DNA sequence: CTAGGGTGTTACCGGTCTGTAACTTCTAGA
DNA sequence: TCTAGAAGTTACAGACCGGTAACACCCTAG
């Protein structure tokens, strides 16, 4: 065989990236394949040569999002090698930054809400990827020497998830404005409980 | 005039209630007006005689949801008259029950996510109603004698909002399973801080 | 130069969506 | 009983949706 799909211009990547952006901004059911391909500077046929269906494209977008999240976790480790507590604080800061500048919430959660059919193929993927993120946060808390690592990680998860959705319903001046204070307070509290 | 829209059979109410149920289960963009009217045992023309548009129907449904929430708060006061702390615990219990038996999250939050257009008429309504709920929870915390009432109320809000969305993305075995433990722990913690 | 795969273009299919028009049927009240 | 208004029925408009077929065009590897 040749050297696989080479490094050219690759409309597939343009479609994928454009779709991620548009799904994020307007929701999955809020944007059609025509709009995506037009924004990506290509056409519908090319999309369907690279993706089986719109659902397939959605799933691929979610995987790409998870991949981006992976990169962030690696950045935490690179910036604070070995210092798990610093990495946890970096996670809080990153989460807050995303809240501030984004406006729209987590792609996975939004997709889960939009795709209400319980047997939708994307739901399996969402559950897997979310579970992986949860496990990683639990691991970080545990490695940071926190006693009830699962409970802290789950609480932080819910706080962030809640902040993201509250940002869209109540607005930026709502409860989500206090996210950092809550998260840092919780970490302090859980660390105190462990030291005792 | 006659005695206004009398107390007969009233297809309008059937449409409204059916729409609430179907929007809740399948999302707003996931159900069409034809499906609503058929499930309500009526037809599209009758719907459009009572509601200006689908968006108008959506808004009316959200108002009805807010009305139901109002009734819950009155039940708290009726069951624990004057005892604000008991009412706060009742709120936690009610929230947990809703989580358990429902599966789909908060109609307002789901709508806010689905209706991503920033100028959508429903967004104003959602913000108002969510703000009102927040104010009420803050008031309850304050009246229960908790020092940092706003911070506790906002934290509880985010936890519940997060639990609702996490239930849909990660599932029932995810972080949302710990909601009661987190909420009760927070209340205890905040009460301790006030007593000191 | 040539062959072939990736790409672009156009047109189309069948379905669903919101919303409306015109007409008939029912029902309640005087 | 008669009448007015609410409700049901059918058909339709116009737009958009996901997905496909057929064909012309590159552009590069050999």
From TrEMBL, chains A, B:
InterPro entries: Homeodomain-like_sf (IPR009057), HTH_TetR (IPR001647), Tet_transcr_reg_TetR-rel_C_sf (IPR036271)
Keywords attached to this entry: DNA-binding, Transcription, Transcription regulation
Transmembrane segments: none
Domain HTH tetR-type: 9-69
Transmembrane helix found in the keyword field: no
GO molecular function: DNA binding
DNA-binding region positions on the chain: 32-51
Pfam families attached to this UniProt entry: TetR_N
Cross-referenced SUPFAM superfamilies: Homeodomain-like, Tetracyclin repressor-like, C-terminal domain
UniProt name for this protein: TetR family transcriptional regulator
Source species of the chain: Mesorhizobium temperatum
